[in-house]
Amino acid sequence: MVQTLSRTPDLLRQRVLRALDEAGILAVTFLEGMRRSWDVRTWWGEFIEQCWFIARVTALPVILIALPLGSTISLQVGDISRQIGAQSATGAAVITALVRDVAPLAAALLIAGAAGSAITADMGARHIRDELSAMEVMGINPVHRLVTPRLWAASTVAVLLCSLIIMSGVVGGYYFNVVQQGVSPGAYFDGATSLLQFSDFAVTLAKAWIFGFIAAAVACYKGMNCALGPIGVGRAVNQATVVTSILVFAANYVITVLYYVLVPPRF
């Protein structure tokens, strides 16, 4: 028992150092992937292919999630607002929540779960087959050739998915708030236009853009550094999804706090 307690600080120190080491390698992978972004000719074809792949595997799930999400928010807020006599404010709550926080987070989590897992598996398969080492032997930097297009593809598609989530969520909320609960369409949209600012949309798209970079960077890093064998690839896929979710929520908190300090919301 005494030996176990004496070893606890050493184990904790090793885990902290390992986490810091992984964070440093992740940052290096991201920066190295961004360093040659200007050389578009070397990764343009892979970028188009990855954009199409990510959009194909995430577009339908985004719609299927955003429609009931907007409807659920509309139902919950509508019941509360009806009790206090402010049912016309439901549209403002639904659209504002979708624009400011829900849309970029949903887009990032879908990219991490659907596209990010596929990217991690692909990079892990290349790693265990020594394709990455073969590229280095041929004088090709695998980060520039494989990571760079995936970073830009995930960030680009995340911005597009963010807009799709907002539109789908607004449609779902409109159906339940206007058609089912009898609120006028003008009241549904008027409250949102009075609360939202252009900077809200700009920050939302910027969030989605940053979250796309985070999802792709974590997926590529975990795949390129996974343990050998199918089990290692499977664990890397699981770890990439979890780490991406943690980093995305942390980044969302920091960005939101800074934005509210610099640009106070309307009331």
Automatic annotation (TrEMBL):
<dbReference type="GO" id="GO:0043190">
    <property type="term" value="C:ATP-binding cassette (ABC) transporter complex"/>
</dbReference>
<dbReference type="GO" id="GO:0005548">
    <property type="term" value="F:phospholipid transporter activity"/>
</dbReference>
<feature type="transmembrane region" description="Helical">
    <location>
        <begin position="242"/>
        <end position="262"/>
    </location>
</feature>
<protein>
    <submittedName>
        <fullName>ABC transporter permease</fullName>
    </submittedName>
</protein>
<keyword id="KW-1133">Transmembrane helix</keyword>
<dbReference type="Pfam" id="PF02405">
    <property type="entry name" value="MlaE"/>
</dbReference>
<dbReference type="InterPro" id="IPR030802">
    <property type="entry name" value="Permease_MalE"/>
</dbReference>
<feature type="transmembrane region" description="Helical">
    <location>
        <begin position="151"/>
        <end position="176"/>
    </location>
</feature>
<feature type="transmembrane region" description="Helical">
    <location>
        <begin position="196"/>
        <end position="221"/>
    </location>
</feature>
<keyword id="KW-0472">Membrane</keyword>
<keyword id="KW-0812">Transmembrane</keyword>
